[in-house]
Amino acid sequence: MNVLPKKLLAADEPAPVSVYNDGGKSPFLLVADHAGNLIPRALGRLGIAEADCQRHIAWDIGIAGLGRLLADALDATLIQQDYSRLVIDCNRPLQATTSIADVSENTPIPGNAGLSDCAREMRAREIFRPYHDRIEAELDRRRQAFRATALISLHSFTPVFQGATRPWHAGVLYNRDARFAHRLMALLNEEKDLFVGDNAPYAVGDASDYTIPIHAERRGLHHVLVEIRQDLIADESGQRAWVLRFARLLPRAYHGL
To answer: CB–CB of 239/65 below 8 Å?
Structure first.
C-alpha cells in the first residue's frame, strides 16, 4: 500500500525544471522532457534497483549533456525536466496509461502500482505542471515580444528494444505539421553516413505525446522532435559530434521554410 506524503519534493531537493542559457537569442527553444533521472526521496526509489535508474527506462541517456552543448552552439535557451520519467512522464497526457507506468520495458515499477488519484495528482502538480508551465511562460514571453520561435524537442532512444535492433542513427518525428521535420530530414539524409528514421523509431501523436501537440501545434509554431540513438551520445565526444551536426543543419532547415 502506498503511503502518501504531505509533499512530494522536500525543500532541499532540486526543482523539477531547470533553464539553461535563459535569454538566448536564437529563435530555437530547446526542450528535453526526459533529461534527468532524479527520484524524490519520498518515493523511496520507486522500489527499483539503482542500476535500473541508469537505464533508458528512467531517462533519455545523453540528452542533458547534448542539450546544453547545443544551447551553447546555437545561443538557444534549453528547458529541461530533471526528474525521472518513471515518476511521471512529462511527454505523456496525464490521462494516458503510460503517464505513470507500473511496468516499463518489462521492468516492474513497484512504487507506481496501485496509485490513488491523490498520489497521481501530487506528481502532476509538483513535477509535470511546473515543467510545462515554464515552457508556456517562455513561449508567452516570446509571443509578446513578437519574437519568432521554433520548438526543438530532444530525445534519445535505445539501440535495442524488446530484443529488436534499431538501425537508425537518428529519427525525425512529427504529427500534423511536417514542414520543419521534412526539411531537416532531407538535410540529414544528405550527410550520407546516416540512416535517419522518418517518424521512427516512434511517431508523434495526440495520445502518445504532450509537448509537441500542446506547445507547438496549438500555437502554430514550427517544430520538430529529434531522437538520437543513445549509444552515439553516451559520452561527451559523441555529444559534441552530434551538436556540430545539428548546429549546422537546424538553422538551414529553419531558414529554408
So the answer is: yes
Is residue 2 scored above 70 in pLDDT?
Answer: no
Nearest-5° angle of CA 159, CA 163, CA 167?
35
pLDDT, average across residues 57-85:
98
**For the whole prediction, is pTM greater than 0.70?**
yes
Please tell me what DSSP assigns to residue 166.
Answer: -
Contact 40, 8 (CB under 8 A): yes
- Rounded to 5°, the CA angle 182-186-188 comes to 115
Confidence band of 4 (pLDDT split at 50, 70, 90): low
Whether omega before 201 lies within 30 degrees of 0, making that bond cis, reads yes
Which residues in 188-208 are b (16+ Cβ under 10 Å) and which e?
A: beeeeeeebbebbbeebeeee
